[in-house]
Amino acid sequence: MNSMVYWLQPLIGFALTVLIETPLLMAALSPRHPWRHRLFAGAWLTSCSYPIVVVVLPYFFSPAGDRLTYLLVAETFAPASECLLFWAAFHRKQGLPRATLAHDYATIVVANLASFAFGELWYIPLWT
Q1: Cβ 38 vs Cβ 26: under 8 Å
Q2: What is the pLDDT along the chain (128 residues), one digit of tens a residue?
């Protein structure tokens, strides 16, 4: 892989992740959250989890050689960490009902699954 692809791939992947997840979060997070919080969450949550998924985890689990382990760890870490961050930023002091919490966390998980599915479709032609 040439150095241009090496550096562009994570940047493009990040942008696509934000473009996929943000509209889902905007549309499906609890209406208790203002639009500006939803928009912020779309970029912020990915900004926190994506670097770990694409920079740190590949040092421990090869995305090509040990793909299943990498995917299990990365795709568990991303939504779990994003739910925790969302809780810390928007739920911790609000005392929201459990149904609202579950709704928001399910939305975050679905957004992550959507970007994961797109990423897998993108990964196959680029790297195999």
Answers
A1: yes
A2: 577 777 888 899 999 999 999 999 999 999 999 999 999 999 999 999 999 999 999 999 998 899 899 999 999 999 999 999 999 999 887 777 889 899 999 999 999 999 999 988 876 665 55
Task: Give the Cα separation of 55 and 23 in Å (integer).
Answer: 25
Q: What are phi and psi of 111, to 5 degrees?
A: -60, -40
Residue appearing with tokens 């670097």: 51
**What are the distances in angstroms from CA 45 to CA 1, 60, 70, 85?**
29, 22, 20, 7
Question: Which backbone phi and psi does 70 adopt, to 5 degrees?
Answer: -55, -50
Q: How far apart are CA 25 and CA 75, in angstroms?
A: 17
- Which two three-digit tokens encode residue 98? 């459990």
